[in-house]
Amino acid sequence: MTRQRRGEQLMVPRLEFESYYGRPIIHAPSWAARDIAGYFFLGGLAGAGSVFAAGAHLTGRPRTATAMKVSSLTAVSLSAAALIHDLGRPGRFANMLRVFKPTSPMSMGSWLLSAYGPAAGAAALSAVTGRAPRAGAVAAATAALLGPALTSYTAVLAADTAVPAWHGAHRELPYLFTASATAAASGMALLVAPPRENGPARLAAVLAAAAESAATEAAERRLGMVAETWREGRAGTLMRAARVLTLTGAATAALAGGRSRPVAALGGFALLAGSACTRFGVFAAGIASAKDPKYIVVPQRKGV
Question: From the DSSP assignment, how many helices (H) and strands (E) are in the chain?
């Protein structure tokens, strides 16, 4: 492309992306950020936490196992409450269970949450009371098996929409959400576990931070121009904060988290905050991309 010389006028007007009569090309999701982004974060924390709890139980870390089971129950309860609050009334969640549709992420997610919640509850109750240890072990194993699906299905739910910043990253988003959930569960384990039991959590924090960073970069490369919504405005601020907090938390946990309880807790808080910023950042990027016509027109031309 030749540069425009001084004094010359453009023969063709600059391209501007507009929609008919200023109306949006697609409807932005009506989800409330506090409810649905919070639902994404808390569900991921619960699912990954159950995997951590099972691992702690198998490796002889009873205090960590019990604390993570209670943490997962609390997180999934708050996650369900956030979803129901966004739906408006509890009956709407119950109505989603009237249909079992494998091709619908919403339908599968509802059934997944309904199966995981009781398992997490039974596992936590048995661990706290010491009663029915065999049933508690079965419940903990069930929650651990369902946990990975709970951490990633929300990414499939978001990517299944027409929102450019989500749909365009449909391949990377499940990996990003899983890595973010693992970072959050690592942070929770660092908060609740004694230093002598937090070795696996510290290792998981480092691996999760590296995986989250790689998944974010891969998603932005695939999105092309749409990646601007991940880097600018509210979403950009949140995503930058997420990267700083997650990397700082992982480094803190790796370098000194095994010797000092306060240092481990500090790294844990940073990992939890970083994971939350990731979910809220991705959510904000999606809303921004749905409202701007230029991010909708370009992907359609590329056939994304």
Answer: 12, 0
> 127-159: per-residue pLDDT in tens?
999 999 999 999 999 999 999 999 999 999 899
C-alpha distance from residue 88 to each of 85, 92, 129 (Å) = 5, 8, 35
Interatomic CA distance for residues 200 and 184, integer angstroms: 14
CB atoms within 10 A of CB 233: 14
How far apart are alpha carbons 285 and 258 in whole angstroms? 36
Q: Among 237, 129, 222, which residue's Cα sits nearest to residue 172? A: 222
Contacts of 190 (CB under 8 A, 6+ apart): 198, 201, 202, 205, 253, 257, 264, 265, 267, 268, 271
Whole-model pTM: value is: 0.85
User: What count of other Cβ atoms lies within 10 Å of the Cβ of residue 101?
Assistant: 12
In order of 121, 135, 167, the CA distances from 131 in angstroms are: 13, 9, 46
Question: Within 10 A of 63 (CB to CB), how many other CB atoms are there?
Answer: 13
The residue length of the chain stands at 304
Count of CB atoms within 10 A of residue 195's CB? 16
Determine the distance from the C-alpha atom of residue 46 to the mean position of all C-alpha atoms in its chain, rounded to a whole number.
Answer: 11
Chain segment 47-83, per-residue pLDDT in tens: 999 999 999 999 999 999 999 999 999 999 999 898 8
CA angle 223, 226, 229 (to 5 degrees): 120
In whole angstroms, give the CA distance from residue 174 to residue 293. Answer: 26
